[in-house]
Amino acid sequence: MAVTTGAYVTDEVFERPPLQSRMWAILRAQPLGIAGALIVLVMVMAALFAPYIASHDPELNDFGAMLVPPDGGHWLGTDEFGRDIFSRLVWGARTAMLVGFSCALLGSTIGLLIGVASAYFGGKFDILLQRVIDIFIAFPAIILALAIVTVLGTGTQNVIIAITIPLIPNCARVVRSSALAIREIPYVDAARALGFGHARIVLRHMAPNVMAPYLIMLTTFLGQAILAEASLSFLGLGVQEPIPAWGLMLQGGAQEYAESAPWVPIFPGVAISLAVFGFNLFGDALRDLLDPKLRQQ
Amino acid sequence: MSKYVVKRVLLMIPTILGAGILVFLMMRLLPGDICLIRIAGDGMGVSDEALARCRAEFGLDKPLWAQFIDFAVGYATFDFGKSMWTTNPITHEIGLRFQLSLQIAIMGTITAVAIALPLGVISAIRQNTWMDYVVRTFAIAGIAIPSFWLGIMIILGMLILTQIWFGSPWMLPVEYRPIWEDPLHNLSQTIWPALATGYRYSAVITRMTRSAMLEVLREDYIRTARAKGLMEKVIRTRHALKNAMLPVVTLIGIEFAFLIGGLVVTEQVFNLNGLGQLFVDAVNAHDYTLVQALVMLVVAVFVVTNLVVDLVYAWFDPRIHYS
């Protein structure tokens, strides 16, 4: 039986299984991925609805309730300034998600454009761009980020810039290798023959076809960016007090009073680990679903 | 082979030069006058005279190209200038700490490989069993858990455990001693950061070992080896593992440079005065010359490690001939 769909002729009719059984198949094939997606969902919800979820003002010092252990009033206890740790964690999720999503989206999107353009134009432009990317990749991300912070200074916006820049070349390199294959497919030449401009071909014709590596890089970057923000904030070179940030919560008093008030350093670390864990599980599952080479395994 | 080595060494030059240009421009062109930030940062009034003196001291009154020539010639002759913060020569500042960081980096690498190889192999040969899931979860957790937090937890755990067992909490020794002077004292300081960074590092290697082993185990020559009745143990170690090592060795090399990045944060937790601590102090003090030197040092380590990895390839895989 031949069914004609557009220009393609296939011998079989592919029937889409009902949504419910498809969901079930994904759940069975990717139990860890679903767990990751749930964690991601919780984190995003906490970030969006922080004012409604937090039980206390995260920046309010209460010197009558310093280093209070977890109890009914303060679910996860308080820090050395009497600030409620649960509320700071919830608001910290907002900081982490803001930095994480901004960096990942910016880094992978700029990388996508550079990678596709590099593959599309080829020649000297490509060679030159690849050498520049080589140079950037020779810097460990955190070192480059620290060097950028030296120049720009601390603060949320500068941290986003400092974390994004080292991500760009990584994405550009991966996208370029996929885009090189796309470049050879006749529709790109066809688009040229139709007289479309370079910008249109890069943006409308090539970029949508490298979505798989783009999405994989995007999800990988989410975890990396959250971890990088926590590291920079922990060093005192990232997000600044009094803004609640997980890395910041592990600084100073958290270590000083660790023995008598272990809840202060424990919970923010759990939050960071859980967030990065969730995003990585989710990203891994997505990679398995999107990469046909891995799917066969 | 020797021709290849020469070629590879020569190819390092553009990368290092490029990195140098990048770091140089970043430190000079981006907003802010270095001297203005430094002097105003001290909380004093800024006099034009002090600014001019500061600029002259660090050669900032020269045109940009002349500054770059000074910078490049200095680095090429291993004269890295002096710190803007302590005014000591940079080689002196770095030399003091290099030994400590290098020791932890090497110990971290050994820890990582010792954890990663067995786990990765087990995970691959027991694919999709509970053992595989445990190893994979352990590995993903290793990537997720920040090494600095793991460090805090190790210190906290030791405080609590020693309190319970010995009645008094054991504190990490504060003063650093080189390993050849007092090995026990030295190791009791360095083993913890090595564990904390090594675990994270091992996670990446475990995953790579697993996927490389899975790929190799599907090769025809493994089936041949099984068909001719070789013991499974021999197949795994002599046939599979040896061939799976190639991508793993690359990763160990690449990650070594990143380990130094990880140390920046971990050293802070353990109060170790290594390169990482120096880096953070330099960033805080806006010590551009020192930051510049440290970044270049890390890049140099990265580039040299890559070279070593490429050469080690030949040893692992005789199919590769360099010409």
List the helices and strands and how they pair.
The complex is a heterodimer of chains A (about 300) and B (about 325).
Chain A: E1 3-5, E2 8-10, H1 19-29, H2 31-48, H3 50-53, H4 85-121, H5 123-137, H6 141-152, H7 156-183, H8 186-193, H9 198-206, H10 211-234, H11 246-249, H12 253-256, H13 263-290, H14 292-295
Antiparallel strand pairs in A: 1-2
Chain B: H1 2-29, H2 34-41, H3 48-57, H4 64-76, H5 90-125, H6 130-144, H7 147-166, H8 183-217, H9 220-227, H10 232-269, H11 275-284, H12 288-316
Strand content of chain B: under 5%
Q: Write the CATH architecture name of the largest domain in chain B.
A: Orthogonal Bundle
Average pLDDT confidence of chain A is 84
DSSP strand count of chain B: 0
Largest sheet of chain A: 2 strands, antiparallel
Poorly predicted runs of chain B: none
Number of distinct beta strands of chain A:
2
> What's the CATH H-level superfamily name of chain A?
MetI-like
Q: What is the count of structural domains of chain B?
A: 2
Count of the separate structural domains of chain A? 1
Q: Bin the strand percentage of chain A.
A: under 5%
Query: CATH first level of the largest domain in chain B: which class?
Result: Mainly Alpha
Inertia-based shape of chain A? globular
N-to-C SSE string of chain B, H for helix and E for strand: HHHHHHHHHHHH
- Helical content of chain A (DSSP H or I, runs of 4+): 55-70%
Trace the largest sheet of chain A across and list its strands: 1-2
